[in-house]
Amino acid sequence: NTVYKNRDYLSILQCTSLYPNENSNVNLNVIKTFQDQFDHPVGYSDHTRGTLALKTAFAMGAEILEFHFTDSREGKSFRDHQVSLEINEVIELKNSCLQAQEMIGSPNKIPLEIELSNDHVRTFRRGLYPRIKLEKGTKITEEDIICLRPCEGISAIYYDQILGKELLISVDKFQVL
Questions:
Q1: Alpha-carbon distance 88 to 47, whole Å?
Q2: Which of 71, 75, 18, 28 lies closest to 49, judged by CA?
C-alpha cells in the first residue's frame, strides 16, 4: 500500500486511567461514540482486573485491545501488576475473541442456509389457523384465528390483513387456510 490515509496510523482508544479501574468507571459505550465520530480504528485500553472488560469491548466493536502483561502477578506489588494479564489469560482472551467474532456474524437478518435446508422457515414461523369451526360467509375477527406453528397456508405476517375478510368456504378448527 503506497497511499496512506490517517486511518492507517491513528487509532482512538477508550481508557479510564485508574489502577485498578472499577467496572462502574470503564464506560465502554464511549467506543460507540468514537466509532460514530471518527474515521479511525477504535479500541480499548484496559486497567481492570481480569478479561471481562476486554471481551466486552471486543464484542462492542473495539478493533484494538491494549492491556498490561506480566509473566506473573505473584509477589509483585507495583500497581500495574494488579491489572496485568498473565500468559494463560492472554491465550484465553484470544480464544474468546475468536469465538465471539464467529458468533457476531453478519448484520443482515436473513435465514441462514442451514435454517433453510432444515425447513426451519416453515417449522419455526407461524401461520394463521381457525381457532374454531367457521362457516362460509363468516367475517373473520380476532377471536376466530390463532397463530400457530408450522407456517402452513397463510403466514401470520398477514394477521391484520385477514381480519374483516369473509370466508368463501367453511373451515374446520385448525384447518390450513
A1: 18
A2: 18
